[in-house]
Records
---
Amino acid sequence: MRQIRSFIDLFANVPRFRWSWLGSTISMLGSRMIGVTYPLLAYTLTSSPAWIGWVMFASTVPGLLWYIPAGALVDRFGRRSVMIVSEILRGVLVVVLCLGMAMGWLDIPHLVVIALFEGALSVNSSVAETALIPTTVKRDNVDTALAMHETSVHGMLLVGRPFGGLLFGIAHIAPFIANAAMFFAAAGVLSRAERDISTQSANPRSAHADMGAGFVELWHNGFLRYATLVTAFTNLMVQGLIVVFLSEAADEGLPSGIAGLILAASGVGGVVGAFISPQWERISRKINGKEPRRRLVGFKRLVLTHGRSVMLVHLWACAAALAVPLILAQASVSFAIALLVIGLVGGLSNVTIRMMLSRVPDDRMARVVGVSRLGSYSGVAIGPLVASLLLGLLGSGLTMLVLWCLMAVFAVIVTSVRGLRNSLTSTIEPQAQPAA
């Protein structure tokens, strides 16, 4: 209840946060919907599963190519401004798509091009909102603001996908009309927030130097450097888990609705993890207050140390989650349990990483966000390919065993190497916002 009151108080009393959070949430809902309806429309236009892959590739490849330039763009022209322009242009692209559908000239090459450019603009919005939210509140409210925003990220994932599928079933054009309305609405809501005060448009540095500054800043921050590594590796393993589950579901003839509910478990866990993140210090203190069994003393000392080691908890929880399908012989419920746990610690660690990102000097924050996002997204992009290769060579059972072994070995290495462990157990203390 205390956390809910904090959210309500922040929403009601801080207009800049309210409009920024609302605009971001509307944008995220549109993004989650369109991520589902692109492949559905591709199949409708071609009746070819191959084109589903190409359209999904076109909408996601900007995540690998554009995060770094997007960070430089946001730092140079301002978070709010970049996000407003990006949302308007996304709306325009989707309106063009709707006109093509209505007039009968839309073909698959048009859809691929629209998905590519809309995907790049969505990267702009993603980086901009991540850098914007911490600047809309006072320093002592940043954790609550980030927890509220991260909760909405996972909440929109849960709502957006089924909502997009539902509208597409009613009429193929319906979800895209809704998407265009959402993107324009997001831009309108964001325009009500106060203007950016840290725009760097007069910055004389080259674009190349701007992009390089993000790498340098992240590299010199030990926590962010290793947290990005941990996130990339765990994302790779989790994507492998999802591929194994989908393969098993197809082999067993599991209804698509049930499969969707199981995959949604990660979103449920993410909502819970993000929601409780401001209370993590109190929760971990309570855990520390209990006397552990002798054989767990060392583990507690390394991992549950006064709330400072969220990333280590994330690592070990993911290792434990990947073991569940092995223990339960890859039953469907085992994948749901694993994804629920992974989503929970993912929501918790995402808020922690974003708290550390909010401590980056204001004039370089978006560039560091871009580098961090690129690192974590690389695991999402590469994971399915690696898992597919393993499945073809080893089968699902051995693939799960390999994924768990890799995750467990990585967790042991990170926990055992003092430099890694110390970097990932940095305390996040309030501090003054660096001057722009």
---
Amino acid sequence: MEYREIGKTGMKVSNISFGASSLGGVFHSIKEEEGIKAVHTAVDNGINFIDVSPYYGHLKAEIVLGKALKEIQRSRYYLSTKVGRYGSNGVNFWDYSAKRAMESVYESMERLNVDYVDLINVHDIEFADLEQVCQETLPALVELRNKGIVKHVGITNLTLRHLKYVIDHVPEGTVESVLSFCHYCLNDDALTDYLDYFEEKEIGVINASPFSMGLLTERGAPDWHPAPKPLQELCRKAAQYCKEQGKAIEQLAVKYAVSNPRIATTLFSTARPEAVLQNIKWTDEVLDEQLLRRVKEILEPRFRDTWLNS
């Protein structure tokens, strides 16, 4: 396992890390005991960064993760959760007020069975008024950072330009990390356009969804996926090509995502212990450059497709 620092936070994290969204049954129903075992398997095999949100499974992911963390020594992992995006009784809602952000942190700590959070993120800022994020949400989190309740502060989003906007409109040092998803994977590397900027600001980069929310899998994209059909078809073609070469496209996708040293870590999500071990194994394997070139050639006509709205 390779470890890299998230910006200047001092957190040296495994280059592949555990996203706990699956523990909330976000993708399909889970067995709670198996999900708890998946967390233990990750930590026991060198993964030391875990990311979650009260939004995932409408609190369920934090509750299940909390049961797992109760049995793991606190010094063995860094924990990241979020504020701003929530859900209850099957209904999604958003609240980026300072009051709700502070309340949410304490509620998350109780569910997670911890007395501090290593990294607190403003979740999916594209759903927020960016001025409120800059003037209200982030200052509230900085206040908690000053008190030691949270150690570091970050922001997450799909639309990359929003990350830059917020960083440019808050005091230096407010934002210590960014979490971007679907923008550093086989079919889209738009995140690389911003790496110089993030490094100049000494902001760490966390990558998520190396499978592009299911596009880069043998199973293929789920029905709700926003990618246009031509891109989905090319991804299926790429997956089939990998299979014909005796490889899984998931294997190539993971290895590609974790191989950029300028990105601290890449999050994957599963509630199955065997899938945790498989992702770690793929991370440790040598990148097949020839296969990567051919897959990129297949995907090139729809590379950086505009559905991602970078």
